[in-house]
């Protein structure tokens, strides 16, 4: 489908049919796909074409000719500049509906399924102030330390640190840390010259225990006035339980470096989900929305349907949260991850929760599982919570070869989820249930829990 007849600068009128993965409205002009930021499905808009590609065009909304009843006024003052909460202009019930449609659209595009057993999106009662972790870049400008989010698609810093989706305590920790850096004239990193020290501030807050952790990410392994920095921080932030210096000396957009050092306090913070206790080091992955995490993990437990006799593999185990959550139903748990700190956290968390039948290994899931299968170890249930890039092909091939009875796929990317499921369906699995979970209200992101079972049929 070509959009070559559209011209940049042309003004067009078009209906908005659905939403895109980045929260933009998607409309059609004479059968041509047009993405319009800020438009809501059901609206009719006038837009100026800003970009023309082979398969689509982009437009800037000029006027609402028909307004959706689901449009609301965004409450964040930097909503349009920041680009983080791309759905804040849509009421919450409609956000939940649209996220379900995003998952449906991905499966429609990347699989040949005639029908998808998908449920309604699991939402939040209070869809703000839900994030337990924030990592913000800092810059030195006009004699001030600036801190905030990058504008969408750029490295232009939006100086703002009272984010509505962050827990107030993470905002408070970051705000105080920025002020201390400025008062003590701690050198700030300049990405153009690759000089200076502090690159990011990272705050994590444990909702249940009230413990906070601050990570200062720096190009240098030593900061000037470290003692004064620590003293000022603990004086202003009594909720702090640990201050960590993480060293990232490379030219990269990746936040964390490989080495960390405790400047003061504890290396880990303690969090609870239900009756489970988790101890988290700075680089370890942990879900950012504790309230919804319990709902998500309960969906995983329902899908796994453990009876007490199964060998459970927790691929991409992170700090071991899913395995510990499911521990009572499994005869043995085997977890794996590529982050050494995560494996240490998983082992520690298993011990702290009295889980004695769990083993954790450092390495890629696709490599370890394949090797174990070759040695005769065959899991009954596999749970995977991979990064946005999805499952590796070797892991898909291993799952197809081992014919695991139940595979529970936790995904934060509908596109890679659908693509991977298509390969698994071709290999003999059948999709039994898809449950979208809204882990990130006000954004276009959607998590989902998908249950696949081995049928050997090669199709649904």
TrEMBL record:
Keywords: 4Fe-4S, Iron, Iron-sulfur, Metal-binding, Methyltransferase, S-adenosyl-L-methionine, Transferase. GO terms for biological process: rRNA base methylation. The active site is at residue 412. Residues 5-63 form the TRAM domain. S-adenosyl-L-methionine binds at residues 287, 316, 337, 385. Gene3D superfamilies: 2.40.50.1070, Nucleic acid-binding proteins (2.40.50.140), Vaccinia Virus protein VP39 (3.40.50.150). InterPro entries: MeTrfase_TrmA_AS (IPR030390), MeTrfase_TrmA_CS (IPR030391), NA-bd_OB-fold (IPR012340), SAM-dependent_MTases_sf (IPR029063), TRAM_dom (IPR002792), U5_MeTrfase_fam (IPR010280). One of its GO terms (molecular function) is rRNA (uridine-C5-)-methyltransferase activity. It comes from the Bacteria. Belongs to the class I-like SAM-binding methyltransferase superfamily. RNA M5U methyltransferase family. This is 23S rRNA (Uracil(1939)-C(5))-methyltransferase RlmD.
């Amino acid at each position: 489908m070509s959009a070559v007849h559209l011209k940049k600068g042309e003004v067009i009128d078009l209906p908005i049919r659905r939403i895109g993965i980045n929260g933009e409205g998607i409309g059609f002009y004479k059968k041509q796909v047009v993405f319009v930021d800020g438009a809501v499905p059901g609206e009719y808009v006038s837009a100026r074409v800003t970009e023309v590609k082979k398969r689509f065009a982009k437009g800037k909304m000029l006027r609402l000719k028909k307004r959706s009843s689901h449009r609301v006024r965004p409450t964040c003052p930097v909503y349009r500049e920041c680009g983080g909460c791309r759905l804040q202009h849509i009421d919450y019930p409609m956000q939940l509906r649209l996220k379900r449609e995003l998952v449906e659209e991905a499966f429609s595009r990347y699989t040949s399924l005639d029908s998808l057993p998908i449920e309604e999106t699991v939402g939040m009662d209070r869809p703000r102030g839900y994030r337990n972790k924030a990592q913000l870049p800092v810059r030195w400008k006009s004699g001030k330390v600036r801190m905030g989010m990058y504008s969408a698609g750029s490295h232009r810093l939006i100086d703002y640190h009272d984010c509505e989706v962050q827990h107030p305590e993470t905002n408070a920790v970051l705000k105080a840390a920025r002020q201390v850096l400025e008062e003590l004239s701690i050198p700030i990193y300049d990405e153009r010259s690759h000089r200076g020290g502090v690159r990011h501030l990272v705050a994590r807050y444990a909702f249940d225990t009230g413990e906070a952790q601050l990570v200062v990410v720096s190009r240098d392994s030593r900061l000037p006035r470290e003692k004064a920095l620590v003293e000022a921080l603990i004086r202003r932030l009594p909720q702090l339980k640990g201050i960590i210096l993480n060293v990232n000396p490379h030219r990269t957009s990746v936040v964390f470096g490989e080495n960390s050092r405790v400047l003061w306090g504890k290396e880990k913070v303690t969090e609870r989900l239900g009756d489970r206790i988790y101890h988290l080091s700075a680089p370890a992955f942990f879900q950012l929305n504790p309230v919804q995490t319990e709902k998500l993990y309960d969906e995983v437990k329902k899908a796994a349907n453990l009876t007490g006799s199964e060998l459970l593999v927790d691929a991409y185990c992170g700090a071991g949260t899913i395995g510990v959550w499911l521990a009572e139903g499994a005869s043995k748990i085997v977890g794996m991850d590529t982050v050494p700190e995560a494996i240490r956290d998983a082992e520690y968390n298993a011990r702290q929760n009295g889980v004695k039948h769990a083993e954790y290994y450092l390495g890629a899931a696709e490599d370890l599982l394949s090797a174990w299968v070759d040695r005769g170890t065959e899991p009954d249930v596999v749970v995977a919570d991979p990064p946005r890039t999805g499952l590796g092909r070797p892991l898909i091939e291993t799952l197809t070869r081992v014919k695991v009875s139940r595979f529970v796929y936790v995904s934060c990317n509908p596109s890679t989820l659908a693509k991977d499921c298509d390969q698994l369906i071709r290999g003999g699995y059948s999709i039994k249930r898809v449950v979208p979970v809204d882990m990130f209200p006000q954004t276009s992101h959607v998590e989902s829990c998908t249950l696949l079972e081995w049928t050997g049929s090669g199709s649904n």
